[in-house]
Amino acid sequence: MIWLVHAGGAQAQKYNGNGGSGGGNSGGGQPAYGKPDTTRSTGGGGGIGIISAIPKIVSPRDRTTIDRTRAGEPRKPRQPPQNTARRGPSGAPPANERRLVPDEVVVELSGGATPQQLEALQNRHQLTLLESQASLLSGTTLSRWRITDRRTITAVVQALEADAAVTSAQPNYLYSLQQAGANGGPAQYELAKLRLPQAHALAKGNGILIAVVDSGVDATHLELAGSVVGSFDAINQPGPLNKHGTSIAGLIAAHGTILGSAPAARLLAVRVFGTTGNGNTFDILKGLDYASANGARIINMSFAGPSDPITLRSLQAARKRGIVLVAAVGNAGPKSPPLYPGAYPEVIGVSGSDVNNKSSVFSNRGPYISVAAPGTDILVAIPDGGFEVGSGTSFSAAEVSGIVAMMLERRGDLAPDAVRRILEATAKDIGPKGRDVMFGAGLADAYGAVTADGAPAVASGLPIERVSTGVR
Fold this sequence. Notes:
The protein has 11 helices and 19 strands. It is of the alpha/beta class. About 50% of the residues are buried. It is globular and about 60 Å long. Strand 1 (about 1-5) and strand 2 (about 10-15) form a beta hairpin. The chain has a 7-stranded parallel sheet with strand order 10-11-9-13-15-16-17, sandwiched between helices. Strands 4, 5, 6, 7, 12 and 14 form a 6-stranded antiparallel sheet that branches. A 3-stranded antiparallel sheet has the order 1-2-3, with no helix packed on it.
């Protein structure tokens, strides 16, 4: 059991669950993570203060109204003042959006909301509080609520947005992991495609901390021995781990039968997706906050979903802290609309390619793609010491996260924008000449990226393929 002290105030709220682990946050105490203690009394304490005021002169018209109220006529309920400080446009979902948790909303309150403020909000809007926490990234209190009557999510969001106490309100959106399925194929062809052996002669991501915000990681897998240095479970869901997170972790940091793109990197295993491979806004927000609080230099997000205003703001805050954000662009195919977070401009969106340098048939396309990496028929680790061959832009993103780790090992002062520029400037153009909607700037080149600062190359005895290094 832990006490969560909300930022911006001296109020404390009791929580049950896992606490955030230490490390990496030089800005003071970290937020605690967990579920609300439903046994806590919500009754207020203390006395009622007496406020002196100059008596108001009541006109005959006002006196009539007061007398009617005293005579027993019902008083209209007081409405909260109109909200003039809402963040951005309305958070109500688009008309045809179905990727959301039924009967749930996510609400932001400014600063550190007290239990009394949460109770008052609950009473005003007839909602049931499921959980809340102070967010390091947003500087607000995030809360998840259930709609217990038949009101629509849109109607509740609009009512909340009119409340002066509410900073933002929106649905609890659904996300899915981006793995296309298991097939047969050549083992680890991505090593040569990305020029990883040449890059590993110079760097292996030594000591760089990468948060794998995913479905959890089997840290006992021999491929990941010593790689996982911290973990956080946002969902506390029983049952086995979905294999996806272990596959992503292996593609970044494996160092046994298979070789990750940054085999010396250190991982934070952040579980926000359950056994079925589905996740939601609120759990992802908790995972992002944990990653930031614990010093992650890179956040890998191999999942996709709808445009999500509150998650975007957390990602923007993470990027301002110098964290490099890498995400899969999605497996919905060439005709799919943009999927997020891979399509946000703050994120390095990675598409998939195959052994023949063709676009993976399942990969999304769009002008938001930064670079591509192999995503078709990739050998990956799975829980309980196993391996399989699978496909997905999830795998492409993991490979690029490892490349970024090697870049940061070589030049620890690189800002997120500089990382993106180098990745794109050194990418191999494998599609139509110049930037395109399938591969962005081209196929990522690990060796080109880690040597882009002009450091001398170490002879590795391996052939070096010449690539264009001009900015496209």
